[in-house]
Amino acid sequence: MNIFQAVILGLVQGLTEFLPISSSGHLILVPYILHWPDPGLGFDVALHWGTLVAVIAYFWRDYLRYFSAFFSTFIQIGRGMNLDQKMSWYLVAGSVPAAITGVLLEKQAESAFRSPVLIAATMAIFGLILWVADSYGSKKGGEHDLSFSKALFIGCAQALALIPGVSRSGSTMTAGLFAGLNRESAARFSFLLLGPISFGAGLVAFKNFTGISTPLVAGFAAAVVSGLWAISFLLDYLSRKSFRVFVWYRLLASALVLALLILR
């Protein structure tokens, strides 16, 4: 893989990790469509660390606040929790299902789940589910309306993103909308959930890391920059508009993949 290919894939990773259109699906489809060599799991790990850096850089104040609040709950046992303390536990609840699923299905994620046909199907199906959630969810709740059960529900949706094409951000935002959150709050909680689950997954997958190279560094940097832009863009976009453009993108991408498969 050359530097140009690495930068393109890094940009793709940063954008699609946070926009609800599936980063894992795009990282498989882009090399497949362009006839590029498979970058391998080691390169994927580096790109995911890039988006982890992006989300920590954007939300570092929130993470520090929730980290402190989490440990303070053990000191204040028996008293009511404030919003920061509740949010810290919601992030734990939302991370557990994906962590368990990732450990149990790690081998399938590396092989059986990388089929272009499967990606095309999940892109379309979960795009339609996002449309239903965006069209019919109440969209009235904010972070203060989260509960442990809602966070666990969103976490279960995050676990589905082990299948390429589902989209981690798409599934968690969809679940957030179904749970009654407004678009911005659903997106923000989705982004915050990325931190702990990506950190854990990155540590587990570190065995696939093959060493530092110039293309790898270029891809990592591109993922950081595009990831920061995608977070800022989507939070601003959802304050004014709906998810519909992403639904249409998913459907069109699915149709394109199926057309290419048929023509081949």
TrEMBL record:
Which reaction(s) does its UniProt entry say it catalyses? di-trans,octa-cis-undecaprenyl diphosphate + H2O = di-trans,octa-cis-undecaprenyl phosphate + phosphate + H(+)
Q: Which residues cross the membrane?
A: 40-60, 87-105, 117-136, 186-204, 216-235, 247-263
Where does the record say this protein resides?
Answer: Cell membrane
- Superkingdom of source: Bacteria
Stated membrane topology is:
Multi-pass membrane protein
UniProt keywords, alphabetically: Antibiotic resistance, Cell membrane, Cell shape, Cell wall biogenesis/degradation, Hydrolase, Membrane, Peptidoglycan synthesis, Transmembrane, Transmembrane helix
The remark listed among the other comments is:
Bacitracin is thought to be involved in the inhibition of peptidoglycan synthesis by sequestering undecaprenyl diphosphate, thereby reducing the pool of lipid carrier available.
The record describes the protein's role as:
Catalyzes the dephosphorylation of undecaprenyl diphosphate (UPP). Confers resistance to bacitracin.
Q: Which family does it belong to?
A: Belongs to the UppP family.
Q: What is this protein called?
A: Undecaprenyl-diphosphatase
Species of provenance: Candidatus Doudnabacteria bacterium RIFCSPHIGHO2_01_FULL_50_11
**Organism placement in taxonomy:** Bacteria, Candidatus Doudnaibacteriota
